[in-house]
Amino acid sequence: MTRAMESEFARAWAQLTERLTGPLMLRLILQPVVAATLAVRAGLSDARANRPAYLWTAISNRDARRSLVQSGWRDVGMVFVGACAVDAIYQLLEFGWFYPLQTLIVACALAIVPYLLVRGPVTRMARRRRACR
């Protein structure tokens, strides 16, 4: 790796970690909470319809993958777009420049990751709870 690439990675890492403080910091809490709330709603719906856990099925079942990704995107797409927009505003305010790759990283971390981590376990817990009744 060249020094220029190392310096770009160092700059990008520093800018990504700077987002943990400063203006618009509240989005780091609100956007994952909204994504997780949507995942809970979808997970409960999966349990009622007796569908399997989301992420594992999306990874392991090639036939169902497309419909699962579309379903997840319908749920979390607006949160993702909002996260992109807010991060773009943050970058312009703080750095005076827009870094699209950083925006995608932040939006994935704030919207998609919480959704993926919550939907499947909620489905499993809701299904177990229904079975105990």
Reconstruct the topology from this structure.
Blueprint: H1 3-18, H2 27-48, H3 54-60, H4 62-94, H5 100-132
Helix pairs in contact: 2-4, 2-5, 3-4, 4-5
What does the average pLDDT come to? 90
How many discrete domains? 1
Task: Count the E strands.
Answer: 0
Low-confidence stretches: none
Instruction: Characterize the main sheet.
Output: none
Helix content: over 70%
User: Could you say which overall geometry the principal axes of the C-alpha atoms support?
Assistant: elongated
Task: Kindly describe this structure.
This protein is an all-alpha fold and 133 residues long. It has one domain (28-132). 83% of the residues lie in helices and 0% in strands. The protein contains 5 helices and no strands. α2 packs antiparallel against α4, α3 packs across α4 (62-94) and α4 packs across α5. The mean pLDDT is 90.
In short:
The protein has helices at residues 3-18, 27-48, 54-60, 62-94, 100-132. Helix 2 (27-48) packs antiparallel against helix 4 (62-94) and helix 2 runs parallel beside helix 5 (100-132).
Features:
single chain; mainly alpha; 5 helices; 83% helix; 0% strand; elongated
